[in-house]
Design goal:
Layout: H1 10-16, H2 32-43, H3 47-56, H4 61-75, H5 81-90, H6 95-98, H7 101-116, H8 120-129, H9 140-154, H10 159-169, H11 173-189, H12 193-202, H13 207-223, H14 228-237, H15 248-263, H16 272-275, H17 281-290
Helix pairs in contact: 2-3, 2-4, 7-8, 7-9, 9-10, 9-11, 11-12, 11-13, 13-14, 13-15, 15-17
């Protein structure tokens, strides 16, 4: 009996045999799946596991180092800079990598980040650990970051630290005044009245600025539809002189707010502090013409 008679066709059988799929290769000539496993372990900080995977799959130390370099550059911003140094030591990465343009760029960005947080001590630590020239602190990028740091520490009322940063980076008094004023406005927005007054006193900000800032906040609240009662409470907390409300901009915004309440048929009462400011539609139009 022939093989064909028995139902065996050699050609057909050959065609039906599964041919192993060709492995997809990664960046450094190794199986892409193996490369991804190693990179995932490195990314998670499991360098021992990454090394075991590499050894098990006969990945050379040279390729391991290249993968480690990629991991450091890709994830530098997500880690403590000393973790990068540990990885460099673990994989015995050559010194040329640490002095490369790509690595130094990331190192300087870390210095800028620390400065922008008002953490000058950590910025110096990064400079020292990563062998970045101290002259970088004189660069425009570093000074801009230090100015952001001043704003950051002022937001938590650390005036002494703000002044320390100012002196260390020779930042103009005009910037400090502008930063203080910006923070005062932010505190008024959040109704942190005592904090706003405290900052005013510490930086000798004029009362004229405070009065104008409070007026702007009242106008903004009227324009954005805050309740009149809430706005009246804000004026009271800010200890604003009622006569300061007699401002054409405030009158115009108040009239628009009241017109809006009338259109909505709202029953919201007009607080006493605003009643004398309620003006007729004809007067409102006159205000508009003169503004």
């Amino acid at each position: 009996m022939s093989l064909e008679t028995m139902g065996y066709n050699p050609e057909e059988q050959l065609n039906n045999n599964e041919v192993p799929a060709e492995k997809e290769m990664g960046s450094f000539g190794i199986d892409k799946k193996i490369e991804e496993e190693i990179m995932e372990a490195m990314k998670g900080g499991y360098d021992d596991s990454a090394a075991r995977i590499a050894k098990k799959n006969n990945v050379s130390e040279e390729v391991e180092r290249e993968l480690a370099k990629r991991d450091i550059l890709n994830n530098f911003g997500k880690r403590n800079h000393r973790d990068a140094l540990d990885k460099i030591n673990f994989y015995k990465i050559e010194k040329d990598f640490v002095t490369s343009e790509a690595f130094i760029k990331l190192a300087k960005e870390r210095v800028e980040l620390k400065l922008s947080q008002g953490d000058v001590r950590s910025a110096h630590s990064v400079l020292s650990d990563l062998n970045i020239d101290e002259k970088f602190l004189e660069s425009k990028e570093a000074i801009n970051a230090a100015e952001s740091g001043i704003q950051s520490v002022l937001s938590v009322d650390d005036v002494n630290k703000a002044i320390e940063i100012q002196k260390a980076f020779h930042i103009d008094d005009s910037f400090m005044e502008a930063a203080a004023k910006a923070e005062i406005k932010m505190r008024l927005l959040k109704e942190l009245i005592n904090g706003a007054i405290s900052l005013q006193e510490k930086f000798n900000i004029s009362q004229d600025f405070m009065d104008e800032a409070i007026k702007e906040e009242v106008i903004a609240r009227l324009s954005f539809g805050s309740s009149l009662n809430n706005i009246a409470n804000f004026v009271s907390k800010a200890e604003m002189n009622v006569s300061s409300l007699d401002d054409e901009r405030i009158k115009k915004a108040l009239k628009a707010r009241i017109d809006s309440l009338e259109e909505e048929k709202s029953q919201e009462p007009i607080p006493t502090i605003f009643k004398e400011l309620v003006i007729t539609r004809e007067e409102t139009e006159k205000v508009g013409e003169n503004s």
